[in-house]
Design the sequence.
């Protein structure tokens, strides 16, 4: 493995304390080490093995499934200096609809530049009971895609005791999906929320590694799904190879025994290089919901045919086929001459409900809603018109991030909650 860390100093076979990274990593004996100095007086260490992490603080931790109990959902509110400016009124209405839906089931943490203005908008739409479920935090930011900015959570089913924290929040680097967009302010949000006491658990700094929440899907047990198109895209974690990244993911998420890499299924107009949450989603009972394209004249047809074939060949760790549920490819939606990455797969699972993007395409919207209801029979299915969201190349899941509720977690594949 080629593994890169910035270090202050190094002596062979000593414990390395890595800048902005906890916990430290231990070098084994008799390894060939090369240290390279860059032009910024920083040192990068290259070595050909997977570091052995001090796993004591990760013992028993896992990356939960999205359908497990949640403490809250995070939103980052649009304002006139974001890319939403041309249709700020329309996107604000969508946010109000999402806030109304979410606060009927759980609490909501909103980061906003003008918290008092947002509070006034919410008070016009929500009941007093719903407003009590809303926490507002004043902060500046580049954009509003909470899925890729917010921390990724590790949970433990153990009870808190002493200094033990049953929730670890992994704070990764977000670099604008491969340095396409400015993200400096976005990378400071999690630390500010944590220092304000609005995030539970222990915040782990992993700013040396680029990882977006929309690029991974967990079954809460032993399998992680991702895409080669995204994680292997330029300007993210080069020169790491796919094998390196596979090992790194299994190091970061201790419960993960295997990473499933999907090689097909990128939507036209997708800035993320193929996030998994736009094409394939995991549901309880070894269920996969995925976008299927039946129109041979559609530019996506062959790519998504190959995706479907790859999914059909997949097996669970027990050697059984997955239950596969097809979601229809929405009819093409354009902004001027650009096709937008409309998808029904970008739904958000919350306590007791699923928020599903729709696109004013009655037949396909209904088919998607019915399919998602089949995957989550005990949850309410709530349609959110996402035609405004998709103009910025994302949808509901991209705008949100759930945080798990500790000590009330259920294991996966036992039915939905």
Sequence:
């Amino acid at each position: 493995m080629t593994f890169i860390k910035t270090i202050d100093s190094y002596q062979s076979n000593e414990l390395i304390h890595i800048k902005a990274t906890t916990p430290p990593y231990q070098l084994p004996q008799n390894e060939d080490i090369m240290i390279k100095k860059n032009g910024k007086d920083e040192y990068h260490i290259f070595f050909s093995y997977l570091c052995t992490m001090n796993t004591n603080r990760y013992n028993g931790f896992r990356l939960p499934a999205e359908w497990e109990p949640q403490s809250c959902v995070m939103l980052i509110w649009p304002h006139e200096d974001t890319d939403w400016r041309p249709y700020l009124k329309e996107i604000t209405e969508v946010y109000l609809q999402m806030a109304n839906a979410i606060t009927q089931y759980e609490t909501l943490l909103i980061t906003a530049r003008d918290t008092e203005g947002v509070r006034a908008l919410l008070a016009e739409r929500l009941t007093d009971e719903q407003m009590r479920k809303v926490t507002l935090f004043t902060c500046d930011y580049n954009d509003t895609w909470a899925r890729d900015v917010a921390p990724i959570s590790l949970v433990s089913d153990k009870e808190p005791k002493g200094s033990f924290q049953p929730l670890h929040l992994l704070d990764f680097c977000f670099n604008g999906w491969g340095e396409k967009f400015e993200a400096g302010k976005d990378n400071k949000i999690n630390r500010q929320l944590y220092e304000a006491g609005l995030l539970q658990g222990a915040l782990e700094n992993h700013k040396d590694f680029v990882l977006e929440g929309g690029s991974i899907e967990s079954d809460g047990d032993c399998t992680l799904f991702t895409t080669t198109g995204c994680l292997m895209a330029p300007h993210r974690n080069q020169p790491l190879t796919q094998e390196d990244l596979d090992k790194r993911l299994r190091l970061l998420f201790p419960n993960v025994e295997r990473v499933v890499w999907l090689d097909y299924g990128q939507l036209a107009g997708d800035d993320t290089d193929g996030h998994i949450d736009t094409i394939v989603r995991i549901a309880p009972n070894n269920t996969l919901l995925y976008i299927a394209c039946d129109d041979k004249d559609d530019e996506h047809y062959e790519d998504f045919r190959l995706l479907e074939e790859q999914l059909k060949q997949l097996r669970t760790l027990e050697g059984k086929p997955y239950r596969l549920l097809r979601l229809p490819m929405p009819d093409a939606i354009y902004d001027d001459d650009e096709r937008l990455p409309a998808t029904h797969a970008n739904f958000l699972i919350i306590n007791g409900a699923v928020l599903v993007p729709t696109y004013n395409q009655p037949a396909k919207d209904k088919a998607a809603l019915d399919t998602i209801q089949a995957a989550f029979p005990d949850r309410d299915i709530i349609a959110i018109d996402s035609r405004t969201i998709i103009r910025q190349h994302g949808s509901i899941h991209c705008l949100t991030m759930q945080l798990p509720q500790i000590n009330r977690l259920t294991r996966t594949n036992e039915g939905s909650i």
About this structure: The chain has a mean pLDDT of 86. The radius of gyration is 21 Å. Residues 295 and 301 are 6 Å apart (CA to CA). The domain at 61-404 is CATH 3.75.10.10 (L-arginine/glycine Amidinotransferase; Chain A).
